Amino acid sequence: MTLKLSVLDQSPVINGHSPAEALRRTVELARETDAMGFQRYWLAEHHSTRALADPCPEILLTAVASATTRIRVGTGGVLLPYYSPLKVAEVFRMLEALFPGRVDLGIGRAPGSDGLTARALSGGAFYDFDQFPAHVQETVSFLDDALPPDHPYARVKAMPSGEGAPEVWLLGSSDYSATLAAYLGLRFSFAHFINAFGGEEVTKAYRNGFRPSRRERTARSMVAVFAICGATDREAERLASSIDLRRLQMARGLDEPVATMEEALARTYTAEEEAIIHRERPRAIIGTADRVLDRIREVALAFDADEVMVLTITGDYASRL
After folding, report:
1. What is the pLDDT of residues 39-90, one digit of tens each?
2. For residues 153-178, average pLDDT
């Protein structure tokens, strides 16, 4: 099996560096991965956090696409509950017009923030998640100029009009998004880096339940993993110390920039904290390059995945490459 590898970048803010630098480093890494032959480069959306710099992946996408020549560029993902389906469709039709044949629209359902920030993004309203399937379908229909004649917005056209539309992927870490992707006939990406358990069965159910659509005749799936490579296993573990601390902080509700490796290694942990770190470790693949690649191949096979996307966060920007 030829393994198609892609990159998910959350634009981490390392302690001592600015969010602006984190964004510049994202563009630099995209340029490097484009030259290395990676398949896609996706950008994540997060809000009101000191650790991750990108609240507007659709804007950063233009910088990444302009700095690269071949690699597909996309969002992993746009958090649709905060936005109008028409607006999302028009943003991505515009991106497709500017960078034809290279744009992916990854759609997410998770909040990407705390509850207060989510309300602020929604203008103080609470989102009715029962409407999410209809909003996904409406977004895709606007993209494809395919709203049914009896739809209340049937006369509305997403601009710019013309040939071409981005690929659409539904993202998730549970059977909810997988079931919806299968029902709507969309591509599906499972976030193993969020949920390390049960994804194989979720993806299998997606494939078994897939209904061919105007966009896709057959199921297409991806698995997104977290990975850190080092020259030796010991070096990889040292590099992973920053994400260990980051996940401990998240479990404790603490919002801090990503610690440097030196800061993370200087920490001492209680038995309870060690247990939390150990609990989170299945979500990461850590080791030498050969060991990590072997494990990624195992995951891809277990998921019957067409592609694998890799997320890496360390305590310095150079080691992400």
Report:
1. 999 999 999 999 999 999 999 999 999 999 999 999 999 999 999 999 999 9
2. 96
Angle at alpha carbon of residue 294, lines to 206 and 9, rounded to 5°: 65
pLDDT at 111 over 80: no
Question: Can you say whether the dihedral through the CA atoms of 15, 16, 19, 20 is positive or negative?
Answer: negative
Closest CA to 215 of 278, 161, 274, 143: 143
Q: How many CB atoms lie within 10 A of CB 232?
A: 10
CA dihedral 247, 309, 103, 179 (to 10 degrees): -80
Q: Cα(58)–Cα(231) distance, rounded to whole angstroms?
A: 35
- Please state, in angstroms and as integers, the Cα–Cα distance from residue 103 to each residue in 73, 98, 298, following that order: 5, 9, 28
DSSP label of 257: P
Q: What angle do CA 167, 78, 319 make, to 5 degrees?
A: 90
Closest listed residue to residue 202, CA positions, set 173, 229, 233: 173
Buried b (16+ CB within 10 A) or exposed e, 279-294: ebeebbbbbbeeebbe
Query: Is the confidence at residue 112, as pLDDT, over 80?
Result: no
**Measured at the alpha carbon of residue 16, what is the angle toward residues 12 and 21, in degrees to the nearest 5?**
50
215/186 Cα distance (integer angstroms): 7
**Per-residue CA distances from 83 to 80, 127, 133, 165, 202 (Å):** 5, 10, 14, 19, 27
Q: Which of 83, 71, 63, 4 is nearest to 32 (CA)?
A: 71
Q: How far apart are CA 112 and CA 120, in angstroms?
A: 13
Residues 6 or more apart whose CB falls under 8 angstroms from that of 55 comprise: 45, 46, 47
- Continuous H helices in the chain: 19-36, 57-67, 85-98, 115-121, 132-144, 175-184, 199-209, 233-251, 261-265, 271-280, 289-303
C-alpha span between 108 and 170 (Å, rounded): 6
pTM score, whole prediction = 0.96
Task: Classify domain 4-228+284-320 by CATH number.
Answer: 3.20.20.30
How long is the chain? 321
